[in-house]
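Practice problem 4.
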């Protein structure tokens, strides 16, 4: 390139490039190469890794699927010594607070919120954007030093181990690590008009207790400290919940633990891609319960012979907006008699794991 030439390129540093409407909400950055360089007000000796915390950030699943797992992959691909500076756009203050312990594990330097900076920063080099291997995936064949999703679990464990963080006032009774006679099951609850709510949750909780579990109902919110969530899940022996973002907490389970995913009508491929396959790679004992039409609230609106219940693929026809029927408008009322068999099997596996660990 000649001395008077320059080239520019724009980029939105977020992994979901195929979703145009979403990408439009990601702050666009302009990269310029050429002879001109602004005066540096802040000099850094470490390279920059620039990415966005926008998009679907705020949904717990996407925080990991589109954020921390790609960040883990990128760091282990290009910066194994972790001598990098995280430069973040669309960085909400609650997000940086919620994930503070985790962010400090990626880099020894304080993060830079690009949207709040007014000074010009200079770095020896920069990587803009994150590397993704696919849904909830760390592909060891694509890394110079092979890592898997289990290594990501170990990374989380190191971030939230007892020695690194301070517990709050024990919001969950099962944060105790005292020996227990019964396996601990975390029942993930969805509340409000969000879809995929278990309508007979108290009946389900009682059935799980009758099967032999100690049950803790888990209702995470934006205000729930992640260290508390990690301690609860990591100390448990099983998680049970309907397909949804909160099942991302299964990343915190120890290998050998049990994950029971309730699969609503029309969500089979989502359940398999985002939780079933990763669970097996995490070394979890995975079980799923596919509800029948009679257990879906959709049967009241459409009738069990309607295409919505009989042939979800034909109803959706590749149009994601049609999936809202299954994700937003569907609740479940489990047939406890049918589900008891799954609870007994989950209990046996959880009990075996508990005895092995103790």
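Answer key:
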């Amino acid at each position: 390139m000649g001395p008077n030439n320059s080239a520019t390129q724009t980029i939105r540093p977020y992994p979901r490039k195929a979703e145009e409407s979403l990408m439009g909400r990601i702050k666009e950055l302009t990269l310029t190469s050429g002879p001109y360089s602004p005066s540096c007000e802040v000099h850094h000796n470490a390279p920059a890794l620039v990415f966005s915390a926008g998009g679907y950030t705020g949904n717990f699943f996407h925080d990991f699927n589109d954020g921390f797992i790609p960040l883990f992959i990128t760091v282990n691909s290009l910066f194994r010594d972790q001598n990098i500076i995280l430069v973040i756009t669309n960085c909400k203050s609650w997000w940086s607070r919620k994930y503070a312990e985790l962010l400090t594990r990626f880099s020894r330097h304080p993060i830079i919120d690009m949207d709040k900076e007014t000074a010009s920063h200079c770095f020896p080099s920069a990587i803009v954007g994150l590397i993704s291997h696919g849904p909830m995936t760390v592909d060891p064949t694509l890394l110079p030093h092979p890592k898997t999703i289990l290594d990501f679990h170990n990374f989380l464990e190191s971030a939230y181990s007892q020695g690194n963080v301070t517990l709050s006032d024990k919001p969950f009774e099962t944060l105790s690590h005292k020996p227990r006679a019964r396996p601990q099951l975390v029942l993930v609850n969805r509340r409000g008009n969000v879809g995929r709510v278990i309508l007979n949750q108290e009946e389900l909780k009682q059935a799980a207790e009758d099967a032999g579990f100690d049950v803790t109902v888990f209702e995470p919110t934006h205000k729930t400290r992640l260290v508390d969530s990690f301690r609860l899940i990591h100390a448990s022996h099983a998680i049970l919940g309907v397909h949804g973002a909160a099942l991302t907490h299964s990343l915190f389970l120890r290998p050998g633990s049990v994950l029971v995913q309730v699969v609503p009508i029309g969500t089979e491929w989502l359940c398999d891609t985002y939780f079933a396959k990763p669970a097996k790679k995490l070394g979890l004992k995975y079980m799923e319960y596919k509800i029948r039409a009679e257990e879906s609230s959709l049967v009241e609106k459409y009738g069990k012979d309607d295409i919505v219940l009989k042939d979800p693929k034909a109803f959706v026809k590749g149009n994601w907006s049609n999936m809202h029927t299954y994700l937003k408008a569907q609740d479940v009322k489990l047939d406890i008699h049918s589900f008891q068999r799954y609870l007994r099997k989950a209990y046996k596996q959880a009990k075996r794991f508990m005895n092995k660990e103790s």
